[in-house]
């Protein structure tokens, strides 16, 4: 390859994806860039955190300022570039005033801003609807409990709320409800007690 061709390649990088942050020294796969599609926001942040935890001892991740900057580098596209630039500027301003690069509050503020802006606001509504329609299938109590607890979290219910307990009992087969009531001198009063009794 000629020197001229090599120079052209060097000067015209692919701008559709971020440049590698630390060569090949980072473990695992980096997250797919986030372009502002709210449906992908949760998966983007989840993927970034998995990558972060895998590389927690690396400088790119154990310094809050750096791992925020790295995360911002994967927020790409016309719909998000202004927001990403604003977050970098806000972080730099915090550092210039009172924060240092190691302050975990930098990440907390960034993550809160991301969640408030891009997380799917309808997630809680959908989870609540799915909870009300959830029923145990094929006698698989483990799957029912795992799904119920996951939806409960997304719907922002607390396990000790009466509404949560009512939905759990409603999703159990009628025969299982009857068996639990008949086999206990004292009817279970909490979600965990009902879960234990359902086995």
Plain-language structure description:
By secondary structure, the protein is mainly α. It folds into two domains: 91 residues, no CATH class; 76 residues, no CATH class. 60% of the residues lie in helices and 0% in strands. It is built from eleven helices and no strands. α4 packs parallel to α6 and α7 packs antiparallel against α8.
What's the SSE blueprint?
Elements: H1 3-11, H2 41-54, H3 59-62, H4 64-73, H5 81-97, H6 105-118, H7 123-133, H8 141-154, H9 162-171, H10 174-182, H11 191-198
Helix pairs in contact: 4-5, 4-6, 7-8
Name the average pLDDT: 84
Fraction of residues in β-strands: under 5%
Helix tally equals 11
Q: Which structural class do you get from the secondary structure elements?
A: mainly alpha
What would you call the shape? elongated
Q: Level of helix content?
A: 55-70%
Q: Write down the secondary-structure element order.
A: HHHHHHHHHHH
Radius of gyration: 24 Å
* Total E-strand runs: 0
- Spatial gap, N to C terminus: 69 Å
What about the largest sheet? Answer: none
Low-confidence stretches: 1-24
- How many structural domains? 2
What key attributes describe this structure?
single chain; 199 residues; mainly alpha; 2 domains; 11 helices
């Amino acid at each position: 390859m000629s020197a001229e061709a090599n120079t052209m390649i060097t000067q015209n990088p692919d701008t559709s994806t971020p440049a590698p942050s630390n060569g090949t020294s980072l473990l695992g796969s980096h997250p797919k860039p986030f372009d502002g599609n709210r449906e992908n926001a949760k998966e983007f942040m989840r993927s970034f955190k998995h990558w972060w935890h895998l590389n927690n001892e690396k400088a790119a991740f154990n310094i809050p300022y750096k791992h925020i900057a790295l995360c911002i580098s994967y927020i790409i596209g016309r719909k998000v570039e202004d927001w990403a630039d604003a977050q970098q500027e806000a972080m730099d301003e915090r550092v210039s005033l009172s924060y240092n690069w190691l302050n975990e509050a930098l990440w907390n503020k960034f993550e809160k801003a991301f969640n408030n802006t891009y997380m799917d606001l309808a997630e809680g509504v959908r989870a609540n609807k799915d909870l009300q329609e959830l029923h145990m299938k094929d006698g698989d109590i483990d799957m029912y409990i795992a799904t119920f607890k996951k939806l409960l979290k997304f719907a922002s219910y607390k396990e000790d709320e009466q509404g949560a307990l009512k939905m759990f009992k409603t999703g159990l087969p009628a025969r299982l409800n009857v068996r639990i009531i008949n086999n206990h001198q004292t009817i279970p009063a909490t979600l965990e007690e009902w879960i234990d009794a359902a086995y």
